[in-house]
Design goal:
It is a single chain. The protein has four helices and 13 strands. The protein has about 220 residues and is of the alpha+beta class.
């Protein structure tokens, strides 16, 4: 009687074991039939030898008379307000006659002189100097907005080279004194100061009849 009882329990365990093994085989076969997708984990870690994520923007610099001058990664808010106002007003009146571009745009004069003026105006008749990545040649009008780090270059070195390459008109905008100096190329190949504008005057040009700049709007954001 005891033997039969033991055998009965063994058969129950055996049947249970067979059932469990059968279920496991079914699960294994089911898994084999399912497509396996391998998840990829992205690694965004970097060390000092890697490219700094926050330094991925392109360097900004100018080459003036063979010397490289690094520029600020981002101009000041006041600088951008002045640049934006000038761009809007130039575009409103001069766009039918030419192309107005604003910084950052490279103006390539030669290997020793590669500038980034704040604004340039190029007549349609001279549009051939506009290439895919830069201006290759002198624009018709160049505008510089002074900053402490660029003031001397804008007033002296770049002006000298713009003269040499025949820039017709050059503006220097001073955010401190709220003025716009207008230089026109004369017959001797010199950029002569012909007018200093302040608000509420309007800037006009003897060379480009479309120009009509309201000085009150130029410095409106600085008050």
């Amino acid at each position: 009687m005891l033997k039969n009882s033991i055998n009965s329990k063994m058969r129950i365990k055996s049947r249970g074991g067979v059932d469990k093994m059968s279920d496991k085989r079914k699960d294994d076969e089911s898994k084999k039939r399912e497509p396996v997708v391998k998840e990829q984990t992205e690694n965004y870690a970097y060390d000092g030898d890697d490219l700094d994520f926050f330094g991925m923007e392109e360097e900004r610099y100018e080459i003036i008379e063979g010397v490289r001058y690094d520029m600020q990664a981002a101009p000041t808010i006041h600088h951008q307000q002045i640049s934006g106002a000038l761009h809007i007003m130039l575009h409103q009146t001069c766009h039918p006659n030419g192309t107005i571009l604003y910084s950052p745009v490279d103006v390539y004069l030669d290997e020793d002189n590669q500038f980034q003026p704040d604004l340039v105006y190029i007549l349609h008749e001279n549009a051939a100097i506009i290439k895919e990545k830069r201006i290759e040649g002198v624009p018709d009008l160049a505008v510089e907005i002074l900053s402490p780090s660029t003031s001397h270059n804008d007033k002296v070195r770049k002006k000298r080279q713009f003269e040499r390459f025949g820039l017709k008109e050059y503006w220097i905008v001073d955010p401190v004194h709220l003025t716009l100096d207008q230089f026109i190329l004369n017959g001797d190949g010199k950029l002569n100061l012909v007018e200093t504008y302040v608000a509420p005057n309007r800037v006009t040009s003897p060379l480009f009849s479309c120009i009509d700049i309201d000085m009150k709007r130029v410095f409106a954001g600085l008050h």
